[in-house]
Amino acid sequence: MKKLFLPLLSLGLATCGLSQILSDDFNDGSIDGTKWQQILPFGQSTLVESGGAMTSSGRGILVATPNMPTSYSITGSFRMNSVNELFKIVLRSDLSLSPGLEIYGERKGIQIAFSDTPRVALENHISGGGVGPFFYPFSLGQFYDFEILDTGANVSLSINGSFFASLATTDSVGNRVAFYSREFPGSSTTFDNIVITAVPEPTCFALSGIAGFLIIARSKLRS
């Protein structure tokens, strides 16, 4: 039984590692249909891949094609290009319209909202509430790095390598992720180097601890 347990544990740990779900540096000049779905809700909505980056205008919505696991991270960079811009990343979405905000093309889910006001908010467009808005000194035309970690129970945001805010919630209506600009004509955000990575769930860390203990114990028995 002991001989069988360690190989099974090793097999379990092998499934716990980081694995890349999607990566795009937008360098080929055309939207990759294997990675992205486009939603253009209004006449002014556009998505343009050019100059090694993606630009969403007038609420052009770029949807990641893969379904997301329970726990994953999203990294990338963005630049707001226009006054009164509102760049959003929506998680745990089924891409349906957010009740009461249908005329704006808002999507239901957990939203991370960046504004040139300047402010940042984590908004719950499922059951309501959220955290923020919080001040952040954004400048138009400047790129900012971001990292979002969704564990299934908590969504956290880091900007330029520093933790910024988090929202504790298990609310979810789906497993899709999307990026979009404000609905105003001419309002736009450019984003780049999007990487989505599956990350280990807490049970994987527990397995790692058990494996480490067994390896040490077995080494002591042999010595």
Entry keywords:
223 residues; disordered N terminus; 15 strands; 2 helices; single chain; alpha+beta; disordered C terminus; seven-stranded antiparallel sheet; eight-stranded antiparallel sheet; globular; 15% helix
What do these coordinates show?
With 223 residues, the protein is an alpha+beta fold. The relative contact order is 0.24. Strands 1, 3, 4, 6, 11, 12, 13 and 15 form an 8-stranded antiparallel sheet that branches. The chain has a 7-stranded antiparallel sheet with strand order 2-5-14-7-8-9-10, with no helix packed on it. The two termini are 22 Å apart. The chain has helices at residues 2-14, 202-222; strands spanning 19-24, 36-39, 46-50, 53-57, 61-64, 72-80, 86-93, 110-115, 119-124, 130-135, 144-150, 154-159, 162-168, 176-180, 188-198. Helix content is 15%, strand content 43%. A hairpin with a 3-residue loop joins strand 8 and strand 9 (119-124).
Task: Describe the SSE topology.
Elements: H1 2-14, E1 19-24, E2 36-39, E3 46-50, E4 53-57, E5 61-64, E6 72-80, E7 86-93, E8 110-115, E9 119-124, E10 130-135, E11 144-150, E12 154-159, E13 162-168, E14 176-180, E15 188-198, H2 202-222
Antiparallel strand pairs: 1-15, 2-5, 3-4, 4-15, 5-14, 6-11, 6-15, 7-8, 7-14, 8-9, 9-10, 11-12, 12-13
Helix pairs in contact: 1-2
Summary?
It contains 2 helices and 15 strands.
